Amino acid sequence: MSITRTPMTSVDRAWLRMDSPENPMMICGVLALDRQISINRLKHTIEQRLLCFDRFRQRVIDKGERAYWQEDPLFHIDNHLHQIALPGHAGKTELQTLVSDLNSSALDFRRPLWQMHYIDNYESGSAVLLRVHHCIADGISLVRVMLSLADTTPEPRLRRSASRKTPAPSAGSGLQKTLHRAVDSALMAAEQTRLFLSEIRKEPNYPMKLASAAGGIATDLLKLGLAPFEPATGLRQPLSGRKQVAWAEPLDLAEVKACAKVLGGTINDVLMSTVTCALQRHFKARKEPIPECGLRVAVPFNLRPLDQPIQTLGNKFGLVIVPLPVEIQDPIMCFNQVRENMNRLKHSYQAQVTYSLLDLFGRGPDILERRALDLLSNKASAVLTNVPGPKEPLYFAGGKITQPMFWVPQSGTIGIGLSVFSYAGTVQFGVTLDKNIHADPDEVIAHFQESFKALSHAALAGREGLINRQAG
C-alpha cells in the first residue's frame, strides 16, 4: 500500500533547515490558567480542535533536496501530551525555569513536530505549554490555532467525535472575530499587501507602477544586502543553545492607547519605543557603551490575506529590519524617531523581499541557505514579535486564561527574542535569551516596565504643559 506524501513548500522547508543546536526553530506558547483542569477534557479538546489539522498528525520526511509531510503510522496523543507538576504551589520563577528548560530542548523529528505539557501546581491554578516547530506554521497562524482551542465561556459543548475537517466558528461569533483580530499583524500588513497587490494595478498607469514597484523591490534588496552588521555589544555573543525566558506583569492596554493618542502615534509606535528605551536602560545598567548608530531588530511581518481561513497553515510572512534609536536619551524624541522609522517601513518592500529570499533558499542547497542566514542574522540584534490577541478573556478546557505568552525562535546567530501580545485589555511582554547573552531576562523585563512609565509620564507632562500654555 503506497504512503501518501505531501511536498513541503520551499518557504516551510527553509524554516525546517534553519533548525540548529544553538537555535531550535520552535514557537513556544504558555497559557496560565486560574484552576486545574481535567486531563481527559484537555485530550478531548486537542483531538477535536488541534488534530483536525493534518500537520499535527504528520511527521517530516527529509529526502535530500526535497522534504515531505507524511502521516505518522505510530501517532498517539500520549507521545505529544505530557502531564507534569511543579513542586508545591510554585510561582512564576519556577514556571519560568521549567519553560526555559523545555524551550532549550529540541523536538523529536521521528514524530510530528509538536509537544504540549499540562503543568499542575502553578500558583492557585495550572499552566499549559505548547511547542510547535516553525516549519508547521508561522506565529500568526499558530496564534489562531491556539485561539481555536479556546472558548468564550467555561463550559462549551464539545462534539463527541473528532472531525478531520477544520472546525469553523459560526458567522458573527465572538471567537471568529478574535481569530480575525489575531491574524492582523502588528506591523501594517494590510497596507503593505495593498501597496504591492492593489495600488500598482490601478489604471491607467499599471505598467509604470509595476516598474516602480520592481525598482523599489530591487532597492530594498540592495539596502538589505549592503546594510552594515550590528555593532559588537554584549547582546551579540556566540550562542550556547540554552535559553532563559521571563515575562512581565501585564500593562494596561488603555494606558498604552492613551499614551499613543497624546503622542500622535500608534500603539505599536509606543511599544517599539518602550522596547528601545528598555535596551537603552540595559546598556546603562551594565555600564556598556550605547551604540551611537543604534540597534536593529528583525520583526516578522504578516503577508497572509486577512480573510484567509484558519485551515491554511504554513509560513506566509517576511521580515523587516527595524532601527531602534537607543542612542536618543529623551523618551519623546526617541518616540518621534521610532514613529518616523515605522512610517518609512510602511512604504517599503522589505517583507516581500525577505519572503522571496526564503522561498529561494528553500529551493536551493543547504549551504547556500546557511551562508545567507549567517549574513542576514548579522543585520539585527534581536527578533521582536508584536501580535494583537483577543479583546475578551478566553477559557481553555474549562480554565480561564489569566495570562498568555509566546516566543518565536531566533535564527542564525541572533540570541534574543522579544514578544508583545495583547489580551483582554492588557499588553503582555516576554523575553527569551541565550544564556551566553550578557543580559538578565528579569532585568530586561523591569527595564521595559520602567520605560513605559517614563514615556507615559513624559507624554502626559507634555500635554499638561501645552494646555497650560494655551490657557495662558
From TrEMBL:
Domain O-acyltransferase WSD1 C-terminal, first and last residues per copy? 314-455
Which controlled-vocabulary keywords does the entry list?
Acyltransferase, Glycerol metabolism, Lipid biosynthesis, Lipid metabolism, Transferase
* Location of the region described as Disordered in the Swiss-Prot/TrEMBL record: 154-175
Q: Which residues form the signal peptide?
A: none
Does the keyword Protein biosynthesis feature in the UniProt annotation?
no
The main enzyme category here is transferase
List GO molecular-function terms, semicolon-separated: acyltransferase activity
State which Enzyme Commission number(s) the record gives: 2.3.1.20
Query: Can you tell which superkingdom this protein's organism belongs to?
Result: Bacteria
Associated pathway? Lipid metabolism; Glycerolipid metabolism; triacylglycerol biosynthesis
Reaction(s) the record says it catalyses: an acyl-CoA + a 1,2-diacyl-sn-glycerol = a triacyl-sn-glycerol + CoA
Q: Where is the O-acyltransferase WSD1-like N-terminal domain?
A: 8-270
Classification via PANTHER family: O-ACYLTRANSFERASE (WSD1-LIKE) FAMILY PROTEIN (PTHR31650), WAX ESTER SYNTHASE_DIACYLGLYCEROL ACYLTRANSFERASE 4-RELATED (PTHR31650:SF1)
> Which family, according to the similarity comment?
Belongs to the long-chain O-acyltransferase family.
Name of the molecule in the record: diacylglycerol O-acyltransferase
